[in-house]
């Protein structure tokens, strides 16, 4: 027989069951319902459901068949109008028979039923109570084997799966490692893995992290709608309205085998706390990838959950949060405390939405692990059992769990990684760097201003230098003209010195033409020596003194004639233009810049004549 796809909805007075039976004969089907039992048969399909409430046959029931879609729609009246049927989307639990049968002895099944009923009758449970570490009993487990998995019900699994062990969990040889030793090794591994540089990099450069924190998964909108309805009417509402299962998820629920779990009080605590741990890791994965799946999704979930990675058995909610926070700051790509608090708030929302939302998340985790080659072992150890178990618990348990989780506080100091000290030290270093940068900026500005002032002064100096150069050029021109005049004057002096003195009648007294001939050797020697013979200088000085004495006489003409006669009687050796030095080489005679008074006297006589 084939179990068909089905779906249940409800209103105040009716329960509606939609059954999809393609290729079935619509004319040959049977429906039976009474109290909490419902049976449907249409060859080759058979469906048996155990309903969460009672239905009644009073003539208002109705059935219809859609040939295009191949679906039966059956409306059944509720025995108590207005009664709320809880868990209509928990398909695996609905498929279970009213009295479960198993291969285990009947006495254990009865004890399990009594234990479950006792659990449900508990009004309150203090989730914050510190539990004592679980001590494995040698009577219930084989020697040297310690249990793990859902409710610590499995052992010896990894002895047969040594090849896949390192790719799935971090602990080595879990069957021979007790719970306390696993916890100690986990804390040591986390402390060794923590990288302060990576954490501080994500702390200061968090643009990408702030971007992913803005993502809103489906449970955010569902929680807003549920909260709004609860404020309007203070009644319970079916979360099926807000949590919708896909056809693939429904098919997976139908494939699950219904089971009964014999859990004592301590094991139930481990199961609830492990559920929080798995949901936290799943919320982190959904947040950083913004709802998409990739090849790292399986690694992220199992690495961040100590329940999955280290087979940890927690004893209180605070330990779960601390473990998750430490692993977020040690292993994934984004290591930011804001992601820890975001996953924390998302997990609270999921638990407040009820077991339908929790089941949808677990089904997604189951799919991720199913598509990852080594991680499928975790489905067999944990996720499949969680998907079946969550359908059977009461919603008030999840509500109490979410309330206790919401009251739990988690700070950076709880991580045990000295995060606050690292951040304070990094802030101080950053402030010092900013101060140095500011000082460098100020000095750079001062340097630029000084350079600008220097350039301005250079421009002004260049302007003044250009003006100076202009004035220098003018001076050079004037000096050049003056030099020309001086040179021409000196040439005149030389001509006068070489020429004979003129008497009063204008006649020359003598000539000396030997001074006009200059040889090449004499010209080269004149460039090397420009000093005058001492004797010639003394004679010139004597002539100047005598001329000064004669010029003091009242009669100018007589003075000139006397001077001429005296010169005729005592001829003074005429200064040659060239003089011979000790080596016998000629040199130019340096003409003094002082004017010769004798020449002025002669010129005066000529002018008078």
TrEMBL record:
It comes from the Eukaryota. It is found in: Cytoplasm, Cytosol; Nucleus, Nucleoplasm. GO terms for biological process: box H/ACA snoRNP assembly. One of its GO terms (molecular function) is unfolded protein binding. InterPro entries: CS_dom, HSP20-like_chaperone, Shq1, SHQ1-like_CS, Shq1_C. Residues 574-583 have a biased composition (Basic and acidic residues). Residues 1-89 form the CS domain. One of its GO terms (cellular component) is cytosol. PANTHER family: PROTEIN SHQ1 HOMOLOG. Belongs to the SHQ1 family. This is Protein SHQ1 homolog. The gene is SHQ1.
């Amino acid at each position: 027989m084939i179990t068909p796809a089905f779906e249940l909805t409800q209103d105040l007075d009716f329960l509606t069951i939609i059954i999809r039976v393609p290729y079935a004969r619509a004319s040959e089907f049977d429906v039976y319902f009474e109290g909490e039992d419902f049976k449907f048969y249409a060859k080759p399909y058979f469906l048996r459901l155990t309903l969460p409430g009672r239905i009644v046959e009073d003539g208002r029931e109705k059935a219809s068949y859609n040939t295009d879609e191949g679906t039966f729609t059956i409306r059944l009246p509720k025995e108590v109008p207005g009664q709320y049927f809880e868990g209509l989307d928990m398909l695996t639990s609905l498929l279970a028979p009213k009295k479960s049968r198993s291969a285990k002895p009947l006495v254990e099944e009865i004890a399990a039923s009594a234990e479950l009923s006792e659990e449900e009758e508990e009004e309150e449970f203090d989730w914050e109570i510190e539990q004592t570490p679980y001590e494995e009993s040698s009577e219930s487990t084989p020697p040297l084997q310690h249990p793990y998995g859902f409710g610590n019900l499995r052992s010896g699994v990894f002895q047969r799966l040594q090849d896949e062990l390192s790719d799935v969990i971090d602990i080595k040889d879990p069957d021979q490692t007790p719970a306390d030793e696993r916890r100690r090794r986990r804390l040591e591994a986390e402390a060794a893995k923590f990288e302060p540089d990576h954490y501080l990099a994500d702390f200061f450069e968090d643009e990408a992290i702030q971007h992913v924190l803005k993502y809103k998964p489906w449970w955010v909108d569902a929680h807003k709608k549920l909260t709004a309805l609860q404020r309007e009417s203070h009644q319970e509402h079916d979360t099926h309205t807000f949590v919708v299962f896909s056809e693939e998820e429904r098919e997976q629920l139908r494939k699950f085998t219904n089971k009964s779990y014999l859990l004592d009080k301590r094991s139930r605590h481990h199961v609830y706390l492990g559920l929080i741990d798995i949901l936290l890791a799943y919320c982190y994965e959904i947040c950083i990838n913004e709802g998409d799946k990739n090849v790292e999704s399986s690694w992220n979930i199992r690495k961040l959950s100590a329940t999955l990675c280290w087979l940890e058995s927690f004893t209180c909610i605070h330990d779960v949060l601390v473990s998750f926070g430490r692993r977020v700051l040690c292993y994934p790509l984004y290591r930011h405390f804001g992601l820890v608090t975001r996953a924390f708030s998302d997990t609270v929302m999921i638990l407040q939405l009820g077991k339908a939302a929790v089941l949808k998340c677990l089904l997604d985790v189951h799919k991720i692990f199913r598509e990852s080659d080594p991680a499928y072992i975790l489905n067999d150890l944990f996720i499949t059992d969680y998907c079946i178990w969550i359908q059977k618990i009461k919603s008030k348990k999840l509500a109490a769990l979410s309330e206790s989780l919401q009251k739990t506080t988690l700070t950076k100091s709880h991580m045990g990684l000295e995060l606050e000290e690292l951040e304070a030290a990094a802030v101080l270093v950053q402030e010092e760097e900013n101060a140095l940068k500011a000082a460098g900026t100020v000095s750079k500005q001062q340097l630029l201003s000084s350079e600008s002032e220097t350039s301005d002064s250079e421009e002004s100096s260049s302007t003044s230098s250009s003006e100076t150069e202009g004035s220098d050029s003018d001076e050079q021109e004037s000096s050049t003209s003056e030099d020309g005049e001086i040179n021409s004057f000196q040439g005149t002096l030389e001509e006068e010195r070489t020429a004979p003195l003129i008497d009063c009648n204008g006649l020359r007294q003598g000539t000396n033409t030997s001074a006009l001939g200059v040889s090449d050797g004499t010209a080269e020697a004149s460039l090397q020596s420009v000093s005058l013979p001492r004797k010639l200088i003394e004679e010139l000085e004597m002539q100047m003194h005598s001329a000064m004495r004669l010029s003091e006489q009242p009669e100018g003409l007589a003075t000139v004639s006397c001077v001429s006669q005296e010169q005729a009687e005592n001829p003074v050796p005429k200064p040659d233009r060239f003089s011979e030095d000790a080596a016998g080489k000629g040199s130019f005679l340096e003409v003094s810049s002082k004017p010769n008074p004798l020449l002025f006297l002669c010129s005066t006589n000529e002018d008078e004549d």
